[in-house]
Amino acid sequence: QVQLVESGGGLVQPGGSLRLSCAASGSIRSINAMGWYRQAPGKQRELVATITSGGNPNYADSAKGRFTISRDNAKNTIYLQMNSLKPEDTAVYYCNADVWRYFSPTYSFYWGQGTQVTVSS
Fold first, then answer.
1. What is the distance between the alpha carbons of residues 114 and 111, in angstroms, rounded to a whole number?
2. 17, 81 in Cβ contact below 8 A?
3. Are 93 and 63 in contact (CB under 8 A)?
4. Section 82-110 average pLDDT
5. Mean pLDDT of all residues in the chain?
6. Using alpha carbons only, what angle is made at residue 66 by residues 98 and 114, rounded to the nearest 5 degrees?
7. Which of 15, 43, 84, 91 could form a disulfide with 38 if both were Cys (CB 3.0 to 4.6 A apart)?
8. Which pLDDT score, from 0 to 100, does residue 66 have?
9. Pairwise CA distance, residues 89 & 108, whole Å
10. Half-sphere exposure of residue 109, counting CA atoms within 13 Å on the CB side?
11. Taking Cα atoms as reference points, which of 2, 9, 37, 38 lies closest to residue 23?
12. What are the beta bridge partners of residue 111?
């Protein structure tokens, strides 16, 4: 099995910063892309940022210039540094990874359990 565990969420004032972490563990042979998604109440889950195994990032327009995704392949961990947070960034943030498990013929997507980010004064 594969587990993705997020951490770092919380309550922050507008303009503040948070750093999210997501660590993948389990029967992992290789990880392709990893990413962050978020879901606000009453809305669909949306992409925030992704990063390839080579470290190439991709951002949603809402994240560009404020969020930075990074990756530590040795730890199977990604990070999301979020600056200049706005109330509209309030959501549950989910980690996603494209994982090749041992004894599996192909890659499969896995999700973390999510971490709440609330931006409010």
1. 8
2. yes
3. no
4. 96
5. 97
6. 40
7. 91
8. 98
9. 28
10. 8
11. 2
12. 96
Q: Which two tokens stand for residue 48?
A: 């925030």
User: What pLDDT is stored for residue 44 in this prediction?
Assistant: 97
What confidence tier does 50 reach under pLDDT thresholds 50, 70, 90? Answer: very high
Q: What is the DSSP string of the chain?
A: -EEEEEE--EEE-TT--EEEEEEEEESEEEEEEEEEEEE-TTS--EEEEEE-TT--EEE-TTTTTTEEEEEEGGGTEEEEEE-S--GGG-EEEEEEEEEEETT-SSEEEEE---EEEEE--
CA distance linking residue 2 with residue 109, whole number of Å: 10
